[in-house]
Amino acid sequence: MQRRNTLRPHAVSAGLAALVLLAQGAGTAQAEAAGVAPAAANGAAQVAITLTGDNGGACVLSHAEAKAGPVTFTITNKTATAITEIELMSDTRILGEKENLAPGLPPVSFTVTLGGGDYKVYCPGAKVETVAFKVTGAVAAQPTSSVGVLLADGTKGYANYVDTTVDAMVTAIDRLKAAIDAGDLATAQKTYALARPFYERVESDVEGFVLPGFDATDNAGNLDYLIDMRESNLDPAVGWHGLHAIERDLFEAKAITDNTRTLAAELQKNVGLLDKLAPTLEYKPEDLANGAAGLLEEVQSGKISGEEEAFSHIDLVDFAANVEGAQQAFAFLTPGMEKIDPALTKQVQDQFDVVTEMLESYRDPNGLGGYRLYSAELKAADAAKLSKAIQALQEPLSRIAEKVATAG
Amino acid sequence: MTLKHLSDAAAALQISRRGLLFGAAAGTAGAAMLPAAGFAATPETDTIDLSQRHPFYGKGPQAGIMTPPQRYVFFMTFDLTTQDRQALQVLLARWSAAIAQLMKGETIGQVEPDRAEAVGLDTAEALELEPAGLTVTVGLGPNVFSDALGLAAHRPALLRPLVDLPSDALKPDLTGGDLSLQACADDPQVAYHAIRDLARIAKVTGTAATRWTVMGFGRASAGKGQATPRNLMGFKDGTRNIVQPADFDRHVWVQDGPDWQRHGTYQVVRKVQMHIENWDTDRVSDQNAVFGRHKLSGAPLTGTKEFDTPDFAKTATDGSPVIQDTAHIRLAAHENNEGVKILRRGFNYTDGINQFGFLDAGLLFLSYQNDPAHFERLQARLGASDALNEYISHIGSGIFFVPPAPTEGSYIGEAMFA
User: Fold this and answer.
1) B1 contacts in A (CB within 8 Å)?
2) B32 lies in some domain
3) Across the interface, which of A6, A79, A100 has its CB nearest the CB of B409?
4) Buried/exposed B325-336: b ≥16 CB within 10 Å, e otherwise
5) For residue B273, is it within any domain?
């Protein structure tokens, strides 16, 4: 976990935490706070965490210690308006957590099996955000976290997905070039629409490549610029290359010229380079989550507005491809995420379902790329509906990177 | 946790137009108006204190209704995106906690989390700004009280969609909503931040999506102790508004039904577009006749001072009524509506220039009453006959039940989920 500078100090010594416990504990609870948590009939030690608005937000544990074994934490937010979640952590790993805490809601609990050692309860928003918790007894075996294994497996699976997607793009671009070389406009338009989705599925992972010998700020060596740049963001020093320059010829000028053929040859070369670079990528679990979020940003910034396919108007093809790529990335995290936060996992899955069902209604077997054209009329009528469905997916999805980065 | 710094300079900032009003009145009003006496009788506390905080929790009504109107409003409605009762419960509880933070002038969560992969909970644009008298008022639309949510039995007795009213020109995308948030503050950025961050909570809990919204500048109604402000037609608006606590009890607060509804009220919101260019080129005598008041002083056409009681029976030498039959104040007056009064808490708004090249502006009409039929009664008459209709269109509409404030440790509407 990388720590950034923050606006407020948060590292709290165990001594200060204990002081807070004493200050917040009342009557008999005060005496118990220093003691070992009693076990319930099922054998799990019982620890109550009470959140109050006292002294700028307090996170108070009924007991500072438990014996090794199952421990149940029951959280009640009495009056803490600034605290909405708590986490049980071992070093930088999250072992258990509860979200959506707010005054007035019924208590919630989670149970974890803990070996001997030092833990902490993290209460973001409390005046003192970290409270120490100690477990005595046998030290648990060094965790061979099943969550970590699941997430690592997911990243390998996703790497393969990106690799095969770029492989398929190579083939699709070959077909597009062949149609352009043959001067067959109708076929070129069709193959353009069929070639588009591949890049859109994995764009957030492969857009960072700079060719050897070029500065990072030089668009002449930026593969994403050379493959996918739109007219609105052109660098005059480098000119227009790639798919959208071809789109202009095929759909606006409706003419295949020598320049179109040059563009297609360049594109074939650059996609070939991309295909060599893609297998070198390695992913951390949070990269998948951030990549998925990036693809949804692409939907909101380029497709909803109809700017991505300004000449061909096949924005819904790209839209569906962005969503498919995001859903794939999420799917590779799902086995791990189901263990980390099943409720959030289900929420994100449900919102993906809402979006994909909505996209189904735009399918058109006779349309370019299999979807209706995103005409001005369709955009005026449906853009808000489409963007709201993505918004409802973006917010919960944006919480996943942190979770997979701190798991296992 | 607060990240705000109360700036001495900002806290000391007091903006007053008292001198300005005085000067304008003294310079233009005739001797017959006795301007000095007239203004001295008006309690003049029309100042901004940006350090002002209003409590969220309490035993009475929610803040933002009886609260003297602030300078700005950000009003937003939401559609429920789930029929999961627990999700709504979580949303109302999280909104309540966040509103309590916001009204104190504090963040709703971390701005820059320790973990690089985390997203901030508070979007930060109100950091270093003062509470600015922020109030956020939560309303529950008719669809909240459904069988699917298991809340049908809790429906407030008089909550239902508004009836169709004469002259309604409602646009579907400016009408309806299952939840409403009215954020008022003396700093527009504070109001905007509140709504923005509450909308994020609606999305992240998977509960609701934004529906329609209006940002209002300039209050167009007065509360207790405030001078009467002007709407964009240039007329004083709300001269005869409800200000006395006894009138709130009689006309605004729900007094019966289950405990959790007492001190609740019904919120009616209307987006009223004004045809500004036509109005501006209308002769002043016609403008005065449309309202039944003098533009400058606010006095009824039958009087000389703003708070003179209109004399609806008074006739001119030719026998015609001085306040014409279709005058706005005649049709709306409680004397002519069996004593019906509603609390108006409107704000002026603008949406820029519309597609036809007109200034796109008007009044975000917000009213509170203990029976929506009271609004309907008044608007049915106004919509049918008001001379003002030539210059306005009701283009948006909504109705919501506003429960009372929660006590500390509770949340808005908690009793429904018990």
Assistant:
1) 8, 56-57, 82, 125-127
2) no
3) A79
4) ebbbbbbbbeee
5) yes
User: Does B362 fall in a domain?
Assistant: yes
What is the distance between the alpha carbons of residues B418 and B416, in angstroms, rounded to a whole number?
Answer: 6
Q: How many domains does chain B have?
A: 1
Beta bridge partners of A50: A60, A76
Other Cβ atoms closer than 10 A to A258:
7
Residues of B in contact with A405 (CB under 8 A): 115-117
DSSP string, B180-233: EEEEEESSHHHHHHHHHHHHHHHHHTT-EEEEEEEEEEEE-S--TTPPP-B-TT
> Residue B22 domain-assigned?
no
Pairing mode of beta strands B72-80, B135-140: unpaired
| pLDDT, tens only, B39-84 | 334 445 578 899 999 999 999 999 999 999 999 999 999 999 999 9
A187/chain B closest Cα distance in angstroms: 40
Contact B1 A53 (CB under 8 A): no
Selected for mutation to probe chain B from A81, A100, A404 (highest B CB count within 10 Å) is A81
The pair phi, psi for residue B166, each rounded to 5°, is -55, 145
- Partner-chain contact A105 B115, CB within 8 Å: no
Contact A103 B115 (CB under 8 A): no
Name which of B109, B117, B204 is nearest A125 (Cβ-Cβ): B109
Domain A14-143 has CATH 1.10.1650.10: no
Domain ranges in chain A are: 14-143, 147-405
Looking at the DSSP assignment, which residues form a beta bridge with residue A109? A74
pLDDT tens for residues A121-155? Answer: 999 999 999 999 999 998 766 555 789 899 999 99
From 3.40.50.300, 1.10.10.10, 3.30.70.100, 1.20.1420.20, which CATH number describes the A147-405 domain?
A: 1.20.1420.20
Q: What is the pTM of this model?
A: 0.84
- Is there a contact between A100 and B94 if contact means CB atoms under 8 Å apart? yes
Domain of B228, in residue numbers: 48-417
Among A56, A84, A392, the residue with its CB nearest the CB of B1 is: A56
For residue A181, the tally of other CB atoms under 10 A from its CB is 14
Q: How far is A366 from chain B (nearest CA, A)?
A: 32
